[in-house]
Inverse folding.
C-alpha cells in the first residue's frame, strides 16, 4: 500500500514540477529560492561563522555580514565572495582552518541566505516608537498600557507579536475600516518610512499591560509561494514584473524593494488608498492576508531582481580579458588552453554552478597569480553577470552553427 501511495505522490510531484516549469518559462523570475534560511546551515558547517558574525553573533575576524551590504543579485554576492577569497585564505592559514569548497546546492543556499539578511529587521527603538505613536495620532484612538483613546481597540494584546510584520499584517487587514474612522475624525492617514513600524511595535511591547500570552513568531516568507500569491491576490492585474503584467500601477521589477520586510510592508500600506480606489473602479475586493501570506508575498517582492536578466555580453568579453581568464582559458580560439574552454562548459546553464566552480578553483589560481606577481582579479558591480552572459552568448552561437 505504501508503495502505491508513494507512487501517486511521485506522480503528483512530477505533475507539479512540470506545471512549475511551464509557469517559470512564461516570463517569470528565475532562481528564486524556496527557503532562503536553508543557507544558514551551510554558513555554520563551512565555518564562515568562525570568522563572521551575523548581527553580533559569531566570529570577529571578518566583517559582520548582517551589517555590510553587498548588492542585491546573485552575481554581486558571488563577486563579493570571490573578491575576499585571498584574504580569507590568509586568515585560514594563520588558524590552520581548512579551505571550504562549495557544491552548487551549497552555493545556491549560501547566496540566498546572505541575500536574505537584509530582509530581516533589526530590533526596534521603543523611545522613538513612543514618539511616533503620538505623531501619527495612533494614541487618539488606541489605548496601550495606561494611555490613549478608546475609538479603536486597545493594542495591549499586540505584545505577543515578536515580528513587526504581524503588526503590518493586522493593520493592513483592518486598514479600510480604520481609515474610514480617520476620515470621519479628520485625522490624516499615517504614512510609514523605514523602520518606523518596527519602532512602534517595540514601544507597544514595552508598555503593554499584562504578561504576554504565547509569543507569536512568524515563519520567514517563502518567495516561491509569494510569486503565486502575487497572481492569486490580483496584484498582477495592475503591476508588471519586468514588463509582464498590468500597467495601472508601477512595474515592481523596476522598484527597489530589496528592503527589510517591514519597510516593504510600510510601502504597501502607504499606497493602499490608490490601490483601493483603483480596485473599487474595477469591482475587485480589497485583498486580505494571513500572516504567512504577507510574509511570502513580501519575500517575493524582496527577491525581484535577484537574478538580473539585463547583463551585457559585450562588456562581459572585456571583463573576461581584463580579469586574466584568457591566461588559462580559451574562448573563441583565443587564449591559453591550461584550463577548459569555458564557452563549452556545461555549468553555464546554471550561473550558480559556474560561480561555485570559480570559487572552488580559487586556490589553484592564487598560487599561479602569486608566482607571477599579479594581483587578484576583483569583480565589481555587474562584472560577473556580464562575464557569464558573454560566455553564454558564445555557447549559444556555437550551438546554432
Ligand atoms: C578565516 C576567516 C574567514 C572565514 C572562515 C570566512 N571569511 Fe569571509 N571574510 C574574512 C575576512 C578577513 C574578510 C574581509 C576581507 C577583506 O577585507 O578583503 C571577509 C569578507 C567576506 C565577505 C565580503 C564582505 C564585504 O564587505 O563585501 C563575504 C561576503 C564573506 N566574507 C563571506 C564568507 C562566507 C560565505 C564564508 C564561508 C564560506 C566566509 N566568508 C568564511 C574572513 C573569513
Ligand atoms: C481615527 C482613529 C484611529 C487612528 C488614528 C488609528 N487607528 Fe488603528 N484602528 C482604528 C479602528 C476603528 C480599528 C478597528 C478596525 C476594524 O474593526 O476593522 C483599528 C484597528 C487597528 C489595529 C487592529 C487591532 C486588532 O486588535 O485587531 C491595529 C494593529 C491598529 N489599528 C494600529 C494602529 C496604529 C499603529 C495607528 C497609528 C499609526 C492607528 N492604528 C491609528 C482606529 C484608528
Ligand atoms: C487596482 C490596481 C492595483 C492593484 C490590484 C495593486 N496595486 Fe500596487 N499600486 C497601484 C498603484 C496605482 C500604485 C502607485 C500608487 C502610488 O504611486 O502611490 C501602486 C504601488 C504599489 C507599490 C509601491 C511601489 C513603489 O515603490 O512606489 C507596491 C509595493 C505595490 N503597489 C504592491 C502591490 C501588491 C503586493 C499588490 C497585491 C496585493 C498590489 N500592489 C495590487 C495599483 C494597484
Ligand atoms: C592560472 C590558470 C587559470 C586562470 C587564470 C583561470 N582559470 Fe579557470 N580553470 C583553470 C583550470 C586548470 C581549470 C580546470 C580545473 C579546475 O577546475 O580546477 C579551470 C576551471 C574553471 C571553471 C570550471 C569549468 C568547468 O566546466 O568545470 C570555471 C567556471 C573557471 N575556471 C572560471 C574562470 C574564470 C571566470 C577566470 C577568470 C577570472 C578563470 N577561470 C581564470 C585555470 C585557470
Amino acid at each position: 500500500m505504501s508503495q502505491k501511495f508513494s507512487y501517486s505522490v511521485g506522480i503528483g510531484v512530477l505533475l507539479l514540477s512540470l506545471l512549475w516549469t511551464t509557469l517559470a518559462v512564461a516570463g517569470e523570475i528565475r532562481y528564486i529560492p524556496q527557503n532562503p534560511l536553508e543557507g544558514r546551515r551551510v554558513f555554520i558547517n563551512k565555518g564562515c561563522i568562525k570568522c563572521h558574525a551575523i548581527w553580533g553573533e559569531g566570529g570577529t575576524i571578518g566583517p559582520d555580514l548582517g551589517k555590510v551590504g553587498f548588492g542585491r543579485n546573485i552575481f554581486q554576492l558571488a563577486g563579493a565572495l570571490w573578491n575576499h577569497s585571498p584574504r580569507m585564505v590568509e586568515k585560514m592559514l594563520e588558524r590552520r582552518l581548512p579551505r571550504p569548497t562549495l557544491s552548487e546546492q551549497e552555493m545556491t543556499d549560501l547566496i540566498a541566505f546572505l541575500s536574505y539578511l537584509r530582509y530581516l529587521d533589526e530590533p526596534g527603538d521603543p523611545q522613538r516608537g513612543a514618539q511616533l505613536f503620538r505623531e501619527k495620532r495612533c494614541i487618539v484612538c488606541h489605548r496601550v498600557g495606561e494611555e490613549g483613546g478608546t475609538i479603536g481597540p486597545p493594542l495591549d494584546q499586540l505584545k505577543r507579536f515578536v515580528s513587526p510584520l504581524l503588526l503590518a499584517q493586522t493593520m493592513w487587514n483592518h486598514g479600510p475600516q480604520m481609515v474610514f474612522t480617520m476620515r470621519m475624525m479628520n485625522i490624516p492617514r499615517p504614512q510609514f518610512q523605514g523602520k518606523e513600524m518596527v519602532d512602534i511595535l517595540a514601544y507597544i511591547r514595552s508598555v503593554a499591560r499584562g504578561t504576554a500570552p504565547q509569543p507569536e513568531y512568524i515563519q520567514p516568507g517563502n518567495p516561491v509561494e509569494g510569486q503565486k500569491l502575487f497572481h492569486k491576490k490580483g496584484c498582477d492585474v495592475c503591476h508588471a514584473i519586468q514588463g509582464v503584467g498590468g500597467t495601472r500601477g508601477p512595474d515592481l521589477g523596476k522598484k527597489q524593494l530589496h528592503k527589510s520586510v517591514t519597510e516593504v510592508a510600510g510601502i504597501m500600506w502607504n499606497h493602499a488608498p490608490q490601490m483601493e480606489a483603483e480596485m473599487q473602479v474595477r469591482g475587485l475586493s480589497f485583498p486580505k492576508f494571513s500572516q504567512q501570506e504577507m510574509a511570502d508575498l513580501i519575500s517575493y517582492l524582496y527577491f525581484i531582481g535577484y537574478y538580473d536578466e539585463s547583463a551585457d555580453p559585450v562588456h562581459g568579453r572585456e571583463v573576461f580579458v581584463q580579469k586574466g581568464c584568457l591566461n588559462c582559458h580559451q574562448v573563441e580560439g583565443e587564449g591559453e588552453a591550461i584550463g577548459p574552454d569555458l564557452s563549452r562548459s556545461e555549468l553555464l546553464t546554471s550561473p550558480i554552478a559556474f560561480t561555485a566552480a570559480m570559487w572552488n578553483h580559487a586556490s589553484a589560481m592564487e598560487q599561479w597569480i602569486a608566482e607571477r606577481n599579479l594581483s587578484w582579479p576583483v569583480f565589481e558591480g555587474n562584472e560577473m553577470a556580464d562575464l557569464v552572459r558573454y560566455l553564454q552568448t558564445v555557447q549559444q552561437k556555437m550551438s546554432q552553427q
